[in-house]
Structures are given as structure tokens and as C-alpha cells.
Predict the 3D structure of the following.
Amino acid sequence: MKSMKKYVFLCVIVVMLAAVMSGCAQSAGGGKSDIRIFFSLNQMDTFRRTLVDAAAERAAQIGAQFVMEDANGSIEKQVEQIKRAAAEKYDVIICSVVSVDTVTQLKMSAEDIPIVFVNSSPDEKYLQAGKYVFVGSSEQVAGEFQAEYVLGKLAGSPELNVALIKGPSNHSATKGRTNGVKRALEQSGKQIHYVFEDTANWDTAQAQKLFELFLKTGSTADCVICNNDAMALGVVEACKENGISLPVLGVDATADGCEAIRNGDMAFTVYQSGSGQGHAAVDAAVQLAGNGDVKDLEGSSEDGKYVWVDFERVDSSNVSQYGK
Amino acid sequence: MREERNTKIVSIKVKLLGIILPVVIVIMILLVGILYFISKDIIKEYSENLLTSSIDNQTNQIEAWLNENLSAFGAVKQAIEQTGPNEQQLQAILDSYYGFHDNYPQGLYIADANGKLMTASASEKQETNPTQSVWYKEGLTRWNMGLTNAYTNTEGSKVISASGILDDQSGTIKVISADLTLERISIIVNSYIEMDEARAFLVSSTDGTILAHHDNDLISTKLGSSEDAFMRDIWQKIEQWDFDMAEIDNNMTAFSQINGTDWVLVSYIPTKIIYVDIDSVRNMMLVIGLLSILLLAALVERVVHMVIRPVKELIKVITAMTNGDFTVQVKTGSNDEIGVMGGYVEQFIQTMRQMIASIHGVSDKLSTQAASSDTISREMYDATKHQGQSMRELNTTVEQLSLSVGEIAEHATTLAMVVSDTKDDGDQVGSKMQETVIVSRQGKEDLQRVSSAMENIHVSMQKLQQSIDEVGKASVEITNITEIIGNIADQTSLLSLNASIEAARAGEAGRGFAVVATEIGQLANTSAEAVHNIEGLISQINSLVGDTVRQTDESVENIDNSSNLVEDTLRTFDAIFNNIDQVSTLVREMIQKVEKVDEVATNVAAISEEQAASSEEILATSEAMVCQVDNITGNSKSVSAGAMELTASAEELYEQVARFKVREGV
């Protein structure tokens, strides 16, 4: 009996010691100067530039090692990058995926390294608290903001002719933003006609071409809602060429988008804080590297799978604060 | 008493089963319950995952199917847009796709803003006003080919069309389209359900049109106006843009949006199907539990039976022991606590056997002894009774003796009193003598003259002297008598001493003592006679003194007669005077002697009193002895009774001990 007690006591001591040691190890691992972060980018664009720069800045701020590589839109290249990062034993990977369909492959390639997904959100089922998280802005909210603006602007008309220029159909932002727009519009009780709805793959030229084509059909739209600013600028271009003026809405509040708002070419955009996401991505990465989870971070979801960075509405009234 | 106890006995077996079974049953129920709920949760989660996986797969398959067709159409469309064919070439292209693929057997067709419809040559498709058709109007809203809502085409088929603007740079807006039948889509939808028993249907989220359903009749009906409450509930949820998995009307229901369309795939499975397995598991667990309980009960029953078998043996042995049978034996087979107990009981039986055997012996001896002591006590009782009688007789004798001694004392006292009176009388004589002396002195002068008379007086005086001499002799005799009395007293004393000793020896001595008492009586008579003599002597003395007085009187007469002869008689008178003086002296001496007699008589009386007291003491002592002898008789009676009781007890003890059997046949 006595020896039993002694044994239990010893066990408790050992467990406590182990806990203390691991605690020490954890804090040592969390020693920010030691963290090595690998950033695999799908493809550089204006927004992602902001994001990457902010991430690098944040990493430098906390003294973490930060390496960024661009996959140039190639799935194979991205997988190769992740494999290399795993081989070189990075502590954590930040990844803006080329395609959300490859998430399982990426996770496999990363072996045991935690991944912070940015920019494009994998399906929720692929995320796991403390291991695979997404840092970004809720795309649906961006769409809702656009719909709100349109409904406010055209409050008087019971029917709305809406032209939708969307991103690639398999992109999470396309789905989220489009759903946000449609849901908000339909719930307004107005009769909504989608006079044009097509994808322009985030591309200005494609959007311009599409909208010019739309204009040829003779249909009229009360507004053009685009899934991003780049496409909105294409629509603006088409309108200019055809000498018509429409409220054109985008998302991202890129420098060009803001410029267009300042010029009165574009009506509204949603600022997706690339820098905010970059910062948050690095903060989340640090947490994951330290075997922690993101629940303590601002904007984290209850299930610990997401860190939401707030969107901001941008129109002519406040555009001066953005796009610089 | 024992029977009563028997009725209250609850066997260990029942007790054990009564405790173990309910506990086990409760544990079983808890276990089954917990397992059931845990399994239910697990199965539910598993089913949700399965349904999610199923619907995801279906979605992927449908999307792939749609994309496959759309990309095929897109390729044709791109080719047309790139090559800018003339009408014949375009017709050839359209013709080449007729029957090209069974997904779209009619191939592609094109309408322009002017209402001109181009179809494959073999196609029977007719359209009176193509620009008003669903496919045309929806096609106008996109360049990339997309899918229209479900509609019934001019041939009466329920179809969806893939349509889009054909930008052939001709300046006329054209829409290119191809029809996909809903039946085909239904087949696709239903073919890729991964989960057994799950159902799926495809619905347009814009107006709730059912695009694909395993029940073909429901295709292209509206979800919101369905008769089925489940369908209406689903529509309510879709209208809310709520695509999370939920349990609706006892159906686990999953939703999935199809990319590039407004379609929502709904997949559901009745929860009862999901829980069928868990219910059968629960039933199986209950059955197994029941069997286990039965097995356990049987096991417990057997084990307890085996364990308590030696206890039953012990109970038999103890029952036999309770009935006084110590010939039984304990079989100490087992090596457990009960075996140890049996061993000790066996030891106990051995010890008891020895003890009872020795008690047997002791009680035998005891009854023999009791019998003999009974006899002795009877004899003793008889003896003491006899002794008591003797003592009573002795007592009577002593009482008589005492009475006699009392009488002696009384007489002695009387004697003393008489002597005392005598002394008083003597004293009076003395005083008279004094008076005589005085008279003599008065008469001396007168009588000096009476000489002759004096001579007579002198003679008288001599006679008187003689009398007095006789008195002296009597006194001597009195002295002798006194001595005799003294002797009597001595003997009486001796006798009384003997009597005391005899009395102390009690017993047989009683008779001898009676003789002594007789002697004492005789001696007492002698004493009485002696006293009588003394009385006689004293009366003689008295008469002598009377003579003396009379003679003196005569002398006085003579003196009177010779008064005239005073002078003559003077000398005579002197002589008389001298004589009287001498008489007076003698009287005084006599008185002194009488006083001595008085003393002696008083002593005798005192001694007699003492004797009387002593004899009373003897009497008291003798009475006490009688009392004691009576007590002894009483005690010896009690002893006898006790001895009788002892005998009875010894017999009872013997009987009691005889109840125990320590040897077979005893």
C-alpha cells in the first residue's frame, strides 16, 4: 500500500516534470527568432503583393525567418515547394493555394508541418484546429457589402437588373462573394434579374470583353457587381468605350480600384486588408509553430479553424484612406 | 423455537444472488445504455460523415459531368468563334454533333437575334420564336456556356440547356445551345449516391424547381408547392440560404451547391435507417447481457452451493451436538475458512467428549458420597435428639437442687435474724444490768445496812452465776453447732463444685448427678436440725436468764425485808454490788459471744444466698445447654435435609450428564 502510494507520487512528479519540460520546450520553440516560415504563393498580384509584404514585415518585426516563393499558378510547382519546405524542416507554412482542390495533396506534402492557408479558403472539412487554419476575410461579407450598397443606391426601384462578373467558378472567393451578393439581394424582396452572369477569371481584359459583349445584346443593367476590382476596372473600361455610366462595384480596394472610385468610374469596393491578412497569417503561423491554436487571436472562429480579418466598405466618401 | 428460526432462515445463496444480480443488472443496463448512446453518437457522426462524403462525391460527379459537357460545348463554341465559318461550314459543324454523344443527342443549335434557328440537319427541333425561348434568353446573360433552369422544350421533353452567347464577330448576336434531358441528369444524380439507403435530388435554388429526382413524376415540379411536408421544409431551408446539414422530419439531410449553377443537391437518409444498426446492436447487447446474467446467476448458485456444502455438514454436526450427541465427526475436507472452522468444531467435540466423560465419573462419586452423608446425618440427628432429652432431664434435676439450696439460704437467713434478735435482747440485758448497777449503787448506802439480806443475795447471786455458767456451756455448744454448720457448708460447697463439673460434662453424666443432688438434700436436713438445736439452746438461755431475774427479785424482797437492817446489809450490799458488777461483765462477754454467733449466722446466710445464686446460674447454664442441644438437633435436621437434597442433586446431575452421548451405544 505504502509502496503503491510512493509509486503514484513518483508518477505524478514525473508527469509534472514532463509538463514543465515540455512547457519549456514549447516556449523555446515559440522563441520567435527561431521560427522559420515558408510562404508558398499561388501567383503574385497587387493584392497578394500587399499581403506578402505585410507578412514579411510582420515576420521581420518578431524576428522570424521568412521565405516566400511564387508557384506562378502551377499546381505542380506549389506541391514541389511544399515538399521542399518539409524536407528543410520549416516550422510552419503559409500557403495561398493555386487550387483548393489540391489541399489534401499539399497537406500530405507538408508532412507534419502546420499550414496557414491564405487568400483562397479550402473547404472547412480540410481544416483542423491547431494544424490547418485559414486566415482571410469572409468572402460572403464582401458580397453582402456590395449588395447593401446597390440596394441603398437603387432603393427606389422594385426591380433590379444586375450584371454579375465572377471569378473562376472553383475559387472559394467566387462562391462566397457571389452567394453573399445573391442572398442579400434576394432577401431584399426586390425582383432581381441577373441580366448577365459570367466568369472573367479575375481578369480585367476578359471582364471588358464580356461586358462589351453584354452591351451588344441590347440588355440593360442597373449595376455591375464584380467579384474583384480588376474585373470591375474592365467593366469600367467597356462602359467608357461605349459611353455609358453604371455603378460598377468591385472587391479588394486595390490601388487601381480606389483610383477609379476617386475618378468616379467605380462606385464601390470592399477593402480586403491584404496587410491585415499578412499580419494575421504570420501571427497564426507563430501560434501553430508553437503547437498552440489560433483561438486567442483577434477574429478567430469558435472552432479554431479560421481567423477572420475584417472587410471595410470603400466608396467615394472614404476612398482617400485607401489604395495608397 | 428452532422451528421458528427455521422459518426465518434466508439462505446465503438467495442473499448473494439478491445482492449480486440487481447490481449486475444495473451495471448491465448502465453499460448497455452508455454504449447505446455513445454508439448512437458515433454512428450519427459516422453517418453524417458518410452522407457528407456521399453528397460531396455526388456534387463532384455532377460538376464533372456538367463540366465535361460544358467544356465539350465550349470547345465547339470556341472553334466556331475562332474559325468564323460560313453558313455551310457552320451547318456541317452542327450536323457533325448530331448524335455525337448520347448526353445531347440533338447536338448543338444556334439562334440569332433575328429569330433564325440553325439546328443539325437531322434534328427535329422546331422553335417558332427562338428569341423568346428559355435557352435563348438565359444564353444571352453569358458568354461562357452555362446551364439554364429546367423547362419543357418544344418537343415536350423536360430539359435544361447549356447556352451562351456565340461571339462570332458577325455583328449579329447569336446564342448557341444544347439540350440535356433531366432524365439523364437524374440518372447521373442517383448513380453516384455512395451511402446505402440514402436518396438525393437536385433542385434549383432560384425557384425551387426539382431538376432531378428518383421519382420522375416530381421532376420539374416546385419544391415549395410539394404535398410532402419534408420537401416544403427543405425548400424553406434553401430559401434561407442555409446549406448546413440538419435533421429534417426524421431525415438526416445534407445540402451541396453545384458550382457554376444555382443548383442545390439535396441528399437525405431517414434516421431510422441509420439507427437500425445501433438498435440491433443494442438488442444484441441486451440479449448478451441477459445471457450473461443468467450465466452469472447459475455460476453464483453453483459456487455458493459448493462453498456452503461443508457448512451444511457443520450444521448437521452442530445440531447433533445441540441434542447432546457428541459421537458425530466433522469431515474437514476443504482448506478454506470453513475447513478451519470444521477443524475447530472437531477439536471442540473431542474436548467435550473428554469433559463429559470425566463429569460422568465425578457425578457417580458424588451420588455415592451424597448417599453416605445422608445416612450419617440421619444418625447424627437421632443422637442429638437423644442428647437433648437427657439434657432436659438434667435441667429438671438442677432446678430441684436450686430450689433446695434456696430453702437452705432462707433458713440460714432466719437463723441470722434470730441471732440478731438475741443480741438485741442481750444488749437490753446489758442496759438492765447497768440500771441494776446504778440501783445497786443507790441502794449501796441503804443496803450497806442490810448485811444479812446481802448474804441471801449473795447465794442468789451464786445461783445466778451457775446459770450463767450454763449459758457459757450453751455458748460452747453453739460454737460447736456453728462448726457443724461450717462443715455442712463446706461439703455443700464441694458438692456444688462437683455438680458444676458434672453439668459441664453433660451427656451421659446426667444420672450420676442425681445421686449427688440427693446427698446435698440430706446435708441440708442436717443443717436444719442443727439450727433447731441452736433455737432450743437459746430458749434455755432465756429461761436461765428468767431464773436469774426471779432470783434477783427474791433478793430485792429480802433486801426490802431487811431494809431496816440497812447498816447490816451494807457490807452485804457491797458484795452484791461487786457481784452485779461481775455479772454485768459476764453479760457483756455473753453479748460479745452472741454477736459472734450473729456474725457467723449472717455469714452462713450470705454463703447460702451465694449458693442459691450459684445454683441459679447452674440452672441458667443448663437451660442454655438445653437450648443449644435443641439448636443442634434443629441443625442436624437441616444437615439431614441438605444431605437429602444433595443426594437428589447428585441424581439429577447424573441424569443430565447421561443425556450426552460420548460413545456409540451409550
Notes: The longest strand of chain B covers residues 158-166. Residues 54 and 303 of chain B are 55 Å apart (CA to CA).
